[in-house]
Amino acid sequence: METRKQTHVAILTSPGMGHIIPSLELGKSLVSQHDLKVTLFIPTTSKSPQSSTLHNNQDGLNVINLPPVDITHLVAGETSLVVRITTIVRESLASLRSIIETSQQTPTVLIIDLFSTDALDIADEFKMSKYMFSTSNMSAYAFLAYLPKIKRVKNNNDLVSRLTELVHVPGCKPIRVGLLADPNTGSYGCMLRHVTRFKELSGVLLNTFEDLEQETYRALIDDEIAELIPTPSVYPVGPIIKPTVGPSKNQAIHCLSWLDNQPNGSVLFVSFGSGGSLSSEQVTELAFGLELSQQRFIWVVRNPIDFVLPSSYYLDAGNTKEIDPSDFFPDGFLARTQQVGLVLPNWAPQVEILSHASVGCFLSHCGWNSTLESILNGVPMIPWPLFADQHLNATLLSDDIKVAARTQIPPGKEVIRREEIKRMIRLVMEEGDEEGQNLRRRAKELKTSALRAISIGGSSYNSLCQLVEKWNTESD
Ligand code: UDX
């Protein structure tokens, strides 16, 4: 009997752990569950995390780190993250093209991500079907699709009112323009350039699931409002998250055995994702807030933001940097909290921590991967958004999905004081609080529906099957 040639799918991710991790997991699942041949391409710079520690060829997935590019002569130091990422991807395209050109079996499908639309030209050249994997949620995607409708403003007075203006995207809660994108910045222009190419795509895979964002999903597939948010077909295929691999490094072993000794649901996990860090003043307030709350905690700390450019953290995430928290913690904090707290410098085994029964709440920057990891483990959240889609995610989680406490984290540089931090933590962690009980119940419900979505026959599982069938038919 003649055997079918496997369909070859290429995934081009963007630099940054928040993009690489879900793309890697998507690739693994296409290989292991759907029997496709998949090559994941990762653009890199000389400072990118070493491939051996992060993404060796895994589970049959072919992972190629594109040769490092140097963009220092192309972008100024303060250039926005969106522009930097876009530039890195663009500078890597010549290498991508040459690998595809010489590959023994040219991929028939190219899956790009939000910041790599420049690669669509390569897909055209090699006659590949064009898809995108958006690593964030459906609301963030809907806002992006809506972006061309937001007009630029002419002067600064208009700008101030524009930033506080509410945008009503069909299927989404209203959101202030300023939280999403400042129409007068370079990153807005760059994002808009990506968005205008969405129409070339045959479909968009989203790392979310139908039940989580029902209204937005309905709006995105409603032909009658297609004029307002024009989009190719959308396929919610999530949650796609990193699996727990257990303690493989010393830090993980120490951290998980510390958790083993704490009561169930008693530990607050504090982390700001792969790129987040706070100002020195905010670190001090958070330290005192944790102390005042009298709750157990694990805190992943980074050098305060005043020491380093945030974008350099984000793009180098996963690299180990030497830091000494006693350089910037309040005097005596580590000694006073020794019995109840664990401070981890830079990076933690996050999925392992969130899946541990002792963890009761996640104080998070609301990066979408972190959010999905929390949801899949039934852990309620305290939102502390910092940049990018995180403010939008925080609003979605508190007001719509109701798995996160309602907090007043300002979008600007305002410092959140220790009393407010204590209040937020107690509200979720203390047994008696009704809002906390509701959040815990909701987190458990969402865990069940997330697991249902990715199980055989679930909505996300079916969406991915539908796509794979299409790709297989097209490549025959
Ligand atoms: C940013 C955006 O805010 C996010 O919404 C977007 O989808 C991707 O880029 P980022 O800061 O990378 O996100 O956070 P997040 O999306 O949460 O991803 C971080 C990933 O790194 C998670 O998978 C998390 O488990 C992992 N991580 C982070 C660790 O394993 N350990 C850490 O200490 C920090």
Automatic annotation (TrEMBL):
PROSITE patterns: UDPGT. InterPro entries: UDP_glucos_trans, UDP_glycos_trans_CS. GO terms for molecular function: UDP-glycosyltransferase activity. Keywords: Glycosyltransferase, Transferase. Its EC number is 2.4.1.-. The keyword Nucleotide-binding does not apply. It comes from the Eukaryota. The keyword Transferase applies. Belongs to the UDP-glycosyltransferase family. This is Glycosyltransferase. It comes from Papaver atlanticum.
